[in-house]
Amino acid sequence: ALAERPLTGYGAGNFELAYFKHAFPIIGAVHYARTTAFAHNDYLQALSEWGWPTAGLLIFGFFAVLTRKDSSDLLAAPAKAILFALGTAAFFNPVFKMPLLVLLAIVAASCLPKPATSNAKRFYGLFPYMGLVGLLTIWCGFRSFWAAHQRWDQILRWDKKDAAAWHALAKYTKSTEDSLLCERKAVELSPFEPYYVEALARDLESLPGQAHVPEALQTYIMATHLAPTRAVNYLAVARLLWRSGEAAQALEWAEKARRLEPNYWEVDLYIARSLRALGRPEEAVFILKELRRRHRQFQDKAPPPPASPYEGVILRYDDAVVVDELAGA
Asked: Are 24 and 75 in contact (CB under 8 A)?
């Protein structure tokens, strides 16, 4: 990820985009069930989000302040200890994602001036930084309160460019059209956020008729580029292609999904449907029978319940649907 966008990075707050691009499989029923918005190392996170030049200047500036010679000020020693503790903790935790700790670092850094700096000048010079961090902290507090109470409309009243609020508001709308409008706004504001793109594609797919299928198809394909390891989007492409009568392409996309998640049971259903549409009913029946056998074998191992909604989607299985499909084959 650091080598992919060395100069610009992925953008502030976009570490998860880099993680999606380079996620590795884990041992378990679902191979790509984990994701994270934090590197748990502020220095690596800064490099991936801001690029080498900007992150390098910030990191150099922090350690330049930390290595200043002690002044005669009694606060210099404890201030340096605070900065050292924060700088060390940043190797293992997202320390500088917390506004209060950023404010603490600024206050501590102000206690390490050159000896010629007067206390009054130092104090007043700190005002702009404290004011900015203070306002951001207050806003974060209000936003967190409104988000906890599902008041996304209140957040958007103050900040109409909050893509996360538009995405969340879509879940509480009364119609698919309103939800679609909210998701379009979220994607417009954050076009590289795979969750928003994926949600927009789902809304488009849910509309009746075939008019929105081409746009839904292209949106799902865009989601596969943004998050290459999310098998749900590959199957969604296969599902739409199958609906459009493109069985050969549907089979290709469904097999891509199965390579990512072998236990994605619904994938085998669409592989079988595609094979039957291609005039290969014997193979379709074999796939469906093998699906039932594999699922029984999986259940015999008493797997733990899904740990996330994504795992729930991957491991969802309805034997009645498979039996009906076998009867039709």
From this structure: no
Please report the pLDDT score of residue 80 as a whole number. 80
Query: What's the pLDDT score for residue 138?
Result: 85
Q: What is the pLDDT of residues 257-271, one digit of tens each?
A: 999 999 999 999 999
Amino acid identity of residue 38, one-letter, is: F
The answer for residues whose C-beta is within 8 angstroms of residue 175's C-beta and 6 or more apart is none
Q: 197-218 burial by CB neighbour count: b if 16+ within 10 A, else e?
A: bbbbbbbbbeeeeeebbeebbe
* pLDDT tens digits, 101-129: 877 887 777 777 655 555 555 555 666 76
Say yes or no to pLDDT of 282 above 80.
yes
Model's pTM, two decimal places?
Answer: 0.78
What distance in Å separates the CA atoms of residue 183 and residue 196, rounded to the nearest whole number? 7
